[in-house]
Amino acid sequence: MNLFNIEILTPERKVFEAKISSAMIPADDGWVEILFNHCDFVGGLGQGILRLETEAGTEKFAISEGLFNVLNGNLNILTDNVTTASDLTPELVKLKIEALNKELAKLKEAGVSNVSIEMKFIKGELRYTQAQLELVEGKK
User: Cα separation of 14 and 64, whole Å?
Assistant: First the structure.
């Protein structure tokens, strides 16, 4: 099996580093699969589940927006937020989704535009939190 390096980084720390055989990345415009010997590449991350195939098995992370790049055969994931299923409980994630939906409804009632910074932020947080729920419930 051909392996390559991955690093997942947030502004605070390096979250994960390993050798992997493939990565399924939620890009901002669809899904991208990275395999060994992929050409150099830069892309935008969307919120969703990042799936990595390691020597030990499958690793999954909920990630928020950011960037990823392949450079000289190494994959780097740069994101503001990343969580694993062990970091979460379904009850807490569902409460956060409920709170975000209420905040979204308040903004809509106040007539805030769908393209406003506030709406985009809340919608992005909602997509990230929904990805966390999928991760903790094992749906992806």
Answer: 15
- For the chain, domain boundaries: 4-83, 87-137
Please enumerate in sequence order all residues whose Cβ is within 8 A of that of 47, keeping only pairs 6 or more positions apart, or say none. 26, 62, 63, 64, 65, 124, 127, 128, 130, 131
**Contact present, 46 and 27 (Cβ < 8 Å):** yes
Query: For strand 74-79 and strand 4-9, is the pairing parallel, antiparallel, or unpaired?
Result: parallel
Mean pLDDT of the chain: 92
CA dihedral 43, 23, 25, 84 (to 10 degrees): -130
**pLDDT tens digits for range 60-69:** 999 999 999 9
The helix/strand count (H/E) of the chain reads as 2, 9
Contact between 53 and 42 (Cβ < 8 Å): no
Instruction: Output the pTM of the full model.
Output: 0.84
Superfamily of domain 4-83: F0F1 ATP synthase delta/epsilon subunit, N-terminal (2.60.15.10)
